């Protein structure tokens, strides 16, 4: 109605005010119309949200959801001012962390919501029950467009290899979808995921873990030789833990030659991690030459390691578990055979794909550092965790080891692990219905539409995590995962899919078992052998939740974490066991 009157208003005003004044008046009128439209939509939307929280209220207004023949409702559209912009998340650019936790943000919706951004639309799903349903429905989803985006932007996968993803219409299950024409050896989505599951959940896990355990103990023993009985200052806890932990893990995973051939790889590894958003956001090389220089170096390093392994590996050099010193894990050798059969996968492409897997280890290393920061900040928590660690210590010929099964039964140690992942894990779970619409409770999301869930929003949901007489939801408090009269039983079951640091559904992170072992074992080694005194700057360090630090997984601190460290005086020697029983 208002827009129909514009020509008449213009003809009346032009003789009196002139063209410029009329233009300004019309722009103001249009802006006012858009704003009034937005406020009406927002009022209806907020009323709709309130109705969803109070099921006894009858939904009304323009946001009444459309219902299809099966009784499913279409999610409402999040209100926006300008039709051509939609809900353009400009606030995200200045502070993603505060943006997604704003109570008026679409990430805080208790029901699925459609969000229009420019000419695109995405569906946001939050809330424990909705997330549970999303993970169940994930069997009908594909992540290929998003995997392809990350591999191409961040990990440099060449275009000819990316086309293999484009051509894969076979689905992610063992049996290809009806009508699929892709050859079995070209099923890249299924085959790559299967290789990860075999390695990290199947027969590959045990030999890998024993190498990680041995390397972690050797790293700790080397630190004990460097650190004396008197307090010594260190500039940054995260670097102090992260650099040797990354070295130990990479040697366990890839064998010794990746780092021997590329002495700066660990430093480049962390520099790449810090620049991940530069690559994902498509910042031109002209504006970030150092970041792209790092990307080039890490990919060249992996390629050089691959070539060395190809030149030197012989089947007779493999161990009983088929691991070898050149490839490290059989996993990489098997992937070489898998990729060799795929169109478009030359040596550059295989190096990109393998580095994408190697990079993912950064989450468990970062989580270990955050856990140590929180433990050493709190003397009471340190005493509780240290008592559990000391009870699990084993005396072996090489020195001290730990009973892994006992660590995995330790309530306070596990509670610290779970709370660190709740507070410090920030990433987007992205899905898309491939062959059918997705039903989320009584909501329907059309197929081929992007669906997004966010760990940060799920882990800060006060309806789930904030109970009477408990600390605020944004405060580190591991006791929220302890139950029983004596608070001595660890459990995450009460929170359902609201605790989702590894995602969920059929594509839940296959590395979660290894990650938990690695985090608990690293913490145990440090807590048993060292005293650490967090300096003032380290005690109150914040997360880097800027545009460049948010959404990568485990967060980095916004600054350095200064500390003092000394060798722990007279740690308990542990139970005496035979050498063959040292590893659990």
Structural summary, described in words:
- By secondary structure, the chain is an alpha+beta fold.
- A five-stranded mixed sheet has the order 1-2-11-8-3. It has a three-stranded antiparallel sheet with strand order 4-16-14. Strands 6-5-17 form a three-stranded mixed sheet.
- It folds into two domains: 1-51; 184-581, Orthogonal Bundle (Cytochrome p450).
**Annotation, overall tally of beta strands:** 17
Radius of gyration: 27 Å
Q: What is the overall number of helices?
A: 24
Strand content: 5-15%
Multimeric state of these chains? Answer: single chain
Percentage of helical residues? 40-55%
Domain unit count: 2
As residue ranges, the low-confidence spans are: 55-63
Cofactor: heme
Pfam families: p450 (PF00067)
Organism: Apodospora peruviana
Family: Belongs to the cytochrome P450 family.
SSE topology:
Elements (H helix, E strand, L loop, with lengths): L5 H12 L1 H35 L36 H5 L1 H6 L11 E5 L2 E5 L3 H10 L3 E2 L1 H10 L5 H9 L20 H13 L4 H22 L5 E3 L2 H18 L2 H5 L3 H10 L1 H5 L8 H24 L17 H11 L6 H13 L2 H16 L1 H14 E4 L2 E4 L1 H4 L3 H14 E2 L1 E6 L4 E3 L2 E3 L4 E5 H5 L2 H4 L16 E2 L5 E2 L21 H18 E5 L1 H4 L13 E2 L8 E5 L7 E2 L8
Parallel strand pairs: 2-11, 5-17
Antiparallel strand pairs: 1-2, 3-8, 4-16, 5-6, 7-15, 8-11, 9-10, 12-13, 14-16
Helix pairs in contact: 1-2, 6-7, 8-15, 9-10, 9-23, 10-17, 12-14, 14-16, 17-18, 17-20, 17-23, 18-23
């Amino acid at each position: 109605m208002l827009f129909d009157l514009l020509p008449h208003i213009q003809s009346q005003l032009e003789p009196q005010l002139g063209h410029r004044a009329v233009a300004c008046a019309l722009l103001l009128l249009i802006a006012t119309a858009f704003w009034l439209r937005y406020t009406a939509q927002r009022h209806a939307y907020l009323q709709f949200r309130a109705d969803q929280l109070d099921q006894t209220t009858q939904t009304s207004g323009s946001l009444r959801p459309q219902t299809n023949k099966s009784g499913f409702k279409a999610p409402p559209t999040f209100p926006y001012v300008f039709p051509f912009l939609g809900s353009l998340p400009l606030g995200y650019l200045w502070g993603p962390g505060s943006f997604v936790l704003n109570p008026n943000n679409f990430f805080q919706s208790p029901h699925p919501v459609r969000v229009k951004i420019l000419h695109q639309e995405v569906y946001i799903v939050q809330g424990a029950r909705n997330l549970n349903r999303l993970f169940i429905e994930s069997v009908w989803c594909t992540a290929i467009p998003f995997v392809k985006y990350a591999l191409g932007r961040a990990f440099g996968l060449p275009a000819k290899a990316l086309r293999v993803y484009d051509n894969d219409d076979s689905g992610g299950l063992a049996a290809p979808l009806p009508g699929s024409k892709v050859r079995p050896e070209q099923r890249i989505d299924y085959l790559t995921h299967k290789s990860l599951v075999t390695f990290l959940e199947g027969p590959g896990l045990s030999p890998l873990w024993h190498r990680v355990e041995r390397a972690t103990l050797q790293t700790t023993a080397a630190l004990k030789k460097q650190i004396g009985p008197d307090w010594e200052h260190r500039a940054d806890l995260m670097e102090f833990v992260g650099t040797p932990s990354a070295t130990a893990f990479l040697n366990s995973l890839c064998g010794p030659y990746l780092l021997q051939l590329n002495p700066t790889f660990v430093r480049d590894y962390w520099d790449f991690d810090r620049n991940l958003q530069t690559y994902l956001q498509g910042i031109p090389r002209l504006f970030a030459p150092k970041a792209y220089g790092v990307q080039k170096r890490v990919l060249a390093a992996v390629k050089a390691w691959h070539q060395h392994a190809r030149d030197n590996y012989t089947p007779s050099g493999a161990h009983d578990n088929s691991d070898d010193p050149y490839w490290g894990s059989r996993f990489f050798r098997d992937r070489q055979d898998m990729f060799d059969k795929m169109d478009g996968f030359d040596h550059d492409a295989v190096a990109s794909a393998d580095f994408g897997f190697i990079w993912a280890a950064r989450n468990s290393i970062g989580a270990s550092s955050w856990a140590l920061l929180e433990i050493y900040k709190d003397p009471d928590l340190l005493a509780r965790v240290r008592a559990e660690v000391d009870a699990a210590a084993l005396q072996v010929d090489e020195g001290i080891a730990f009973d892994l099964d006992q660590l995995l039964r330790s309530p306070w140690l596990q509670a610290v692990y779970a709370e660190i992942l709740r507070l410090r894990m920030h990433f987007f779970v992205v899905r898309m219905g491939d062959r059918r619409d997705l039903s989320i409770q009584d909501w329907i999301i059309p197929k081929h539409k992007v669906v997004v869930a966010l760990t940060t929003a799920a882990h800060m949901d006060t309806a789930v995590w904030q109970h009477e007489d408990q600390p605020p939801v944004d405060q580190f408090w591991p006791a929220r995962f302890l139950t029983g009269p004596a608070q001595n039983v660890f459990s995450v079951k009460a929170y359902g899919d609201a605790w989702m640091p590894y995602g969920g559904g059929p594509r839940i992170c296959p590395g979660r078992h290894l990650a938990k072992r690695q985090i608990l074992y690293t913490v145990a080694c440090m807590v048993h052998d060292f005293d650490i005194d967090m300096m003032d700057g380290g005690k109150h360090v914040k997360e880097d939740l800027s545009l460049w630090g948010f959404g990568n997984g485990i967060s980095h601190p916004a600054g350095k974490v200064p500390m003092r460290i000394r060798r722990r005086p007279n740690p308990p020697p542990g139970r005496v066991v035979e050498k063959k029983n040292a590893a659990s």
